[in-house]
Amino acid sequence: MDTMQKIQQDKSSAAKEYVNQVYDEVIKRNPNESEFLQAVKEVFDSLIPVFEKNPKYMENGILERIAEPERMVTFRVPWVDDQGKVQVNRGFRVQFNSSIGPYKGGLRFHASVNASIIKFLGFEQILKNSLTGQPIGGGKGGADFDPKGKSDQEVMRFTQSFMTELCKYIGPDVDVPAGDIGVGAREIGYMFGQYKRIRGGYEAGVLTGKGLGYGGSLARTEATGYGTVYFVEEMLKDKDLSFADSTVVVSGSGNVSIYAIDKASQLGAKVVACSDSNGYIYDKNGINLETVKKLKEVERKRISEYVTVHPQAEYYEGCSGIWSIPCDIALPCATQNEIDKRSAQILVDNGVKAIGEGANMPSTLEAIDLFLENDILFGPAKAANAGGVAVSALEMAQNSMKLAWTFEEVDKRLHGIMKNIYQNSVKAAKEYGYPGNLVVGANIAGFVKVADAMIAQGII
């Protein structure tokens, strides 16, 4: 072994040892938080070549600092249901990293919400927000409240109680929440009204995802779904492939899924399946998007009702079976860890060409490894689904300037941002010795910008 090889091996050993030591400490500090630990592990492993090349990040303790939130707030949310009974839920807000801008990240209202899920989402948001090129830091929040089955009045009373506490920690230049699962225009509207009432002023930039009549941005509703498809489109182009005449399976039937279906269809694809938390539908003729929109956005019904309108379609209980449908492109847009190793193997065996993650961390680590081992084009969530927060940042910009851009202007900016995310991820992967691996590329491209800002600002 020559001297240069020995030096490189020593660097590699030191970098791996550093990463493993920090990860062990993260485990000790966050026991039983499986989702958070999964997110941290995936990022940490990708960063070893960065520490080999740039020891300054180890010397400045960047991993130790970036894995620990700057602030984590947990609070009680009491509210009164329609029967006059007092209910109590738990609210969360994690303010993870403000090195490149105010904390930015959605609010999730779902029964599964806990500290681990909020922290995994907030940690992912650090690098995702960095990738957009916008001046926004990483944060996330939510509550273990499920809006499904609740009346508008119950949702209003809950969100007003939630904002009464949350308002102490947010502001246009401090922390700017948005929507996520269970939080749409209705919930954002109620929260904005309560914030305005408490603060006694009109601070449009404190929340994004607002209605168009009071500071919202055109194309925000479509942004995450459209952005995911724009990112996958770039991946496909590099392999002389396209959405045109491709068969696509999209999990979920919420905001992200609906507009991923919309944009994929515009680009010539046939989307044959989508789902909700109860089961999935398969329509060999192609999903009728207007029916899905009516069921989920207007009537708030289950996806199973689709077959009553389109009897040629088939409905199946359970969600994982959706990945058994042969497709060229799979867009997991429902929730975390929906594609495990078994589902990933089925997709590979059925000839899938590309995966674009519209949801946050929808593939397990084992599933991701399987996709990469089989040379499947893979767009990781923090890159592929960054369109939502990118347009949220554009909404913040419009609020600051007190103007509104057209749909076409916002969509053009979104398309450009997604192209840049793809190109920067490709460049970073190649620079650090992992050409074509967008998991590594996205993690490194997002991390380096944040790490450099942390070093420039000292030990904070």
Automatic annotation (TrEMBL):
Protein origin, superkingdom: Bacteria
Gene3D superfamilies associated with the record: Glutamate Dehydrogenase, chain A, domain 3 (1.10.285.10), Leucine Dehydrogenase, chain A, domain 1 (3.40.50.10860), NAD(P)-binding Rossmann-like Domain (3.40.50.720)
Ranges of residues in domain Glutamate/phenylalanine/leucine/valine/L-tryptophan dehydrogenase C-terminal: 217-458
GO MF term (any one): glutamate dehydrogenase (NADP+) activity
Keyword Cytoplasm: no
Keyword vocabulary terms for this entry: Oxidoreductase
SUPFAM superfamilies: Aminoacid dehydrogenase-like, N-terminal domain (SSF53223), NAD(P)-binding Rossmann-fold domains (SSF51735)
Quaternary structure (record): Homohexamer.
Family of this protein: Belongs to the Glu/Leu/Phe/Val dehydrogenases family.
PANTHER family in UniProt: NADP-SPECIFIC GLUTAMATE DEHYDROGENASE 1-RELATED
Name of the featured protein: Glutamate dehydrogenase
Gene: gdhA
